Amino acid sequence: MDSNAQGGKAYGLLKSQQEERLDSINEAFLSDPKYAEEEDLSSKLDMFKKKYVEFDLNDKGELDLMGLKQMLEKLGLAKTHLELKKMMAEVAGGPSKDTLSYSDFLNMMLGKRNGILKLILMFEGMGKEQENKDVAPPRRKTFSDLP
Q: Which burial class, exposed, middle or buried, applies to 142 when counting CB atoms under 10 A from its CB (0-12, 13-18, 19+)?
């Protein structure tokens, strides 16, 4: 990183480096024969990258406990600290890791195991569509509607 960069410029450089790193990981997943049969893999990887960057609160390229907590709270599925630690241990492969790398995140999302994070992120868009359906006010009641 440029040692003279400050403020927004330094943040922009950090974000561009992070994007390049995540793109290189996406390229590796695209060329991996294990995921060759996955439908629309390129667009899924782009969606997963956006979600990962959105909840990477410390901008270190890893999803920590607080990022996971905020993601679940945003989706209306608040979890306790112990539940979050258990989820992280399941995904990261050990109780000692407190962060999820992007590779771990992609393995979880594209893997055959049905983790809670996978289900939440896949159906997040469906929940937003359902929320937008009831925008019109209820119809006006008449005397014939009364019991």
A: exposed
Report phi then psi at 44, rounded to 5.
-65, -45
pTM above threshold 0.70: no
Instruction: Give the other-Cβ count within 10 Å of 17's Cβ.
Output: 12
Whole-number Å distance between alpha carbons of 72 and 119: 11
Residue 79 near residue 87, CB atoms below 8 Å: yes
Q: pLDDT tens across 41-97, in order?
A: 888 888 888 888 888 877 777 888 888 788 778 767 778 888 888 877 777 776 667
Q: Report whether 70 contacts 76 (CB < 8 A).
A: no
Residue with tokens 């999803």: 63
Give burial (CB, 10 Å; 0-12/13-18/19+) of 40.
exposed
Nearest of 29, 61, 56 to residue 42 by alpha carbon: 29
Work out the angle between the directed axes of helices 7-31 and 102-110 (0-180°, nearest 10): 40
